[in-house]
Amino acid sequence: MVASSSAPPEHHRSSRRHSHRRRRRLWRRIVAASLSILLISALGYGTFYLWKQGALPANQPAEDWYEAKSAQRILVQLPRDDAPHTNEMEWWYYNGHLDAENGNHYSFHFTVFLVNQLAAHMVAHVSLLDHQTGKHYTDQKRTTGITSKNKEGTFEFDLGDWHMDGRYGDDRLRAVTPEFSFNLRLKQSAPPVFQGGTGLLDFELAGQSYYYTRPRMEIEGALKVNSDVQNVKGVAWFDHQWGDFRVNQLGWDWFAIQLEDGSDIMIYQIFDTSGLPVLRSGTCAKGGMTKVLTEGDFKVTANGLWVSADTGIEYPMGWTVDIPEQSISLRIAPISTDSEFDGRITSYMVYWEGAVKISGTHSGRGFVELSGYRKETSKSSSESPKKSRIGR
Q: Is the pTM of this model over 0.85?
C-alpha cells in the first residue's frame, strides 16, 4: 500500500483549532500584561500625587502629615455653622474683660447650652467679677424646649431679659440680674480659629465635637453694677462647640489667653472620669496664621490649690504655661480665686470659671475654666492622671 502525501481532512481541522486557541491565549496574555502595566502606573502616579498633596503619611513625619491634612480639610463652614444644629449637645460661649470709663475693671462670662436628648431644653449661665471689690456675681436660667430663632447662618436666643445673638462675628449680648446688667455689642477683630486644624475633635469613647473660636471680639456697651452705670469697652473671646458627645464623661482644664503682642492661645487638657488623658491640644494664632498645638508642644504646671468654701471642691490654681517652640513662658494668676460657678440647679455642673492675668515672657489677659472636679478628689494639671480622678 502506498502512503498518501497529504493529511486527512480531520487532521487539518484539528491543527487549525489548536493554532487559533494558541493565538487567543497569547492575545489574552498581551492584553492582561498591558492592563497591569497601565494600572500599576496609574496607582503609582496617584499615590505619588496624594503623597505630594499631603493626603498620605508615607515618607512624611506624622506631625507634618497631620498639619497638611488639617490645612486642606476644614470641616466647619462659616457663617453656616454659626447657626444651631440638631446634635445632642451644643453651646455658644463668651468671656470678656471690660474697662469702664471711670477706670474700673470687670470680667464676665455668658453661655447658652442647647441639650437635645430625652427632653430638649436650654440652659444659660452668666457671671460677673468686680475686680475692685472681688465680688463674684452669678445667675442662671433653664427652659424646656429650644427658644432659638432659626435664621440661616445666625443664632438668636431669648430667655426673657437675657438675649444672645450673632451674625458672623457681629454679636449682641444682654443680661439683667438683681446685682448687675449689661448690654454689649461685639465685633470680630481676628479671624476664626478651627480647633484641631479641621474644626473636629475626637474625645474617644465620649464622642466627637465640632469646635471653632473667635479669639478676639471688640466690645462696646454699658454695664450696671448695683446702681452704678458705666460705659465699657474691652475684648471678648467666643467659642462655639457642638456634637454627639457626652459631657458627663469628661473633665477639663481650659485656657483662653489673649497676649498683648496679638497672639491668641487656647490650651485644653481633657480627661475621662478615671483621670486618664483623652486629649491634650490647643492652638496659637497670630496675624491670621494658626499653629495647632499637639501634646508635645506645651507644658502646663499647676502651682497651687484652692478649696471652695461652698462646695468643698479642690481646684488647681495658678499655672505656668510653656510653649518652647514659640519662645513663650507664661505665668497665669487668677484675678479672684473665688470664681466657682454652681450650676447644679440648671445643668447639674459645678465648675470654676475665672478671669486671669498673664505675665512672664509676654503679658496679657485671659480666662480659665476647670470642669469635672469633685469634692472627694482633686487633680493638679502637673500631676500624672493616675494620681488623681476627675468626675461629676
A: no
